[in-house]
Every structure is written in structure tokens, then in C-alpha cells.
Write a structure and sequence with these properties.
The chain is α+β, with helices and mostly antiparallel strands. It has a domain of about 70 residues: SH3 type barrels (Roll), CATH 2.30.30. It has 2 helices and 6 strands. Strands 1, 2, 3, 4, 5 and 6 form a 6-stranded antiparallel sheet that branches. The model has no long low-confidence stretch (mean pLDDT about 85).
């Protein structure tokens, strides 16, 4: 195991290490969807009063956590360093075509 929860709460050397830790922690749980992992997105709008993110900020989706009783959570690692997750249907973002 590459560190699990401790890795997620501390500085992780690379995005790949963070994704590996997330998959080790949540990979067997069907609520956690890794199908969009690595998808770049651009923030259009969030009304989170505690974030410094603004329209146009870029991030990479780590995973989507599906919920039955509330909005799905889109876990994002933002280029400016934030880990703010977005709520599907509440926050607005657009997917960016990844350069291959």
C-alpha cells in the first residue's frame, strides 16, 4: 500500500501517486468511479464562499463519488493547488480535450 489516507492529507510527490492511493483506498467500492480520472476541466462557476478558485481555473478530475441522496462529488486537483471538489448539478465546469 502506498500510504492511503496519510498520503491524501499530506503533500504527495506526483498526481500519479495520489491516484494510486485513491484507487487503493476506494477502488473496490462501486460508489467511487475512476472512469473520468485524468480528465482536464475548466471551472465555469462555483458559489463556494471559501475557495479562491475563479472562472477559468483548470484542474484534473481524480474520481467521481456517486451519491443516492445528494449531488455526486467530482474530486478535482486544481492547478493552483486546491483540492476543492465540485458538486454535479450545482457547480459548473466544462471538460477540456486532453492533449495526447
Amino acid at each position: 500500500m502506498c500510504g492511503g489516507w496519510k498520503l491524501l492529507t499530506e503533500e504527495i510527490p506526483t498526481q500519479a501517486d495520489r491516484i494510486k492511493a485513491l484507487k487503493e483506498m476506494f477502488g473496490d467500492n462501486p460508489e467511487y468511479d475512476f472512469s473520468k480520472t485524468g480528465q482536464m476541466i475548466e471551472l465555469i462557476h462555483t458559489d463556494d464562499p471559501y475557495t479562491h478558485l475563479t472562472k477559468g481555473d483548470i484542474g484534473v478530475i481524480e474520481l467521481v463519488k456517486h451519491h443516492v441522496s445528494m449531488e455526486n462529488q467530482v474530486w478535482v486537483k486544481w492547478n493552483e493547488g486546491s483540492n476543492l471538489m465540485l458538486l454535479e448539478g450545482k457547480d459548473q465546469y466544462r471538460e477540456i480535450e486532453n492533449d495526447q
